[in-house]
């Protein structure tokens, strides 16, 4: 799956390269797409965009544990100096 590849690329080549791959995917309804995108944006210090991506991921999951995890990640953005 291309999303898994983008995650691996992010670890090897950096979040900027991975974000370019992710942004080419048409997976808007998939919460993990938004979650991965949010993490890449966070790693690039693009916190406003990361927050919007976390919000999109939260809105697209029905799993309470995943939602709670994503909410904690989103809240952590506001604690970054």
What can you tell me about this protein's structure?
The structure is a single chain. The protein is mainly α and 81 residues long. It has one domain (2-77): Serine Threonine Protein Phosphatase 5, Tetratricopeptide repeat. 74% of the residues lie in helices and 0% in strands. α3 (31-43) packs antiparallel against α4 (47-59). It is globular, with a radius of gyration of 12 Å. The mean pLDDT is 94.
Strand elements, count? 0
- How would you characterize the largest beta sheet? none
Given the structure, what is the number of helices?
5
N-to-C series of helices and strands: HHHHH
Secondary structure class reads: mainly alpha
Helix content class: over 70%
Total separate domains: 1
Q: Beta fraction of the residues?
A: under 5%
Contiguous runs where pLDDT drops below 50 for at least 5 residues:
none
Looking at the overall shape, the CATH architecture is Alpha Horseshoe
| Apparent shape | globular
Mean pLDDT across all residues, rounded?
94
Ends: how far apart? 35 Å
Predict the CATH topology: Serine Threonine Protein Phosphatase 5, Tetratricopeptide repeat
